[in-house]
Amino acid sequence: MVDSIVIGYIDEVLPSYQISLPLVGESDKAIYEKNKALGFDQKDEFIQRKLKVEKLVAGAPVNDEVILSLNAMFKDIEPQFKTGMKILIALEKGNYMHEGKYFFSRYGTYYIVEENYVLPAYEKVDYDSKKLTGASLDQLITTIQSVRED
User: In the chain, at which end, N or C, are there fewer CB atoms within 10 A of the end residue's CB?
Assistant: First the structure.
C-alpha cells in the first residue's frame, strides 16, 4: 500500500544525490569490503523531481510541493518525467536517509492528457490497464476511492 495518491505536475528537475545504503547482511558487508579494497566507492545515486500537488485523491495529506525520489538504476524502467507533465501518482513516504522525499512506481502512476484522460505509465497489458487506458480522470479517481479506505 502507498501513503498518498495525488494529482500534480512536474515543476522542476532537481540535482541527483548520493548516499551509502546500509549493509544489511553478511554478503552485503563482504561485497562492500571487497569493492572498497579494489577502490570502488559504493554509493547509490537517486534522481529527484519536484512535484507541485494540485489535489489529494486518497491517503495521508502532503505538502503543496513534494520531492519525488528514484534510485538511478531504475531510471530507464520507471517513468521519464519532464517539466510540465501532469500526473496522478501514488506516493510512499521516504524515511531515514530519504526523510522528506517520496518514492513512486510506474504501477501507481498515470499521465493526465487532454486535461481529463489518463494513460497508465506501465506497459503491462492486463484487464485493469486496458480498462483504464483512455479513461477519464474522474473514472480513475472513483476507482481509487472505491478501493481505498482513508
Answer: N
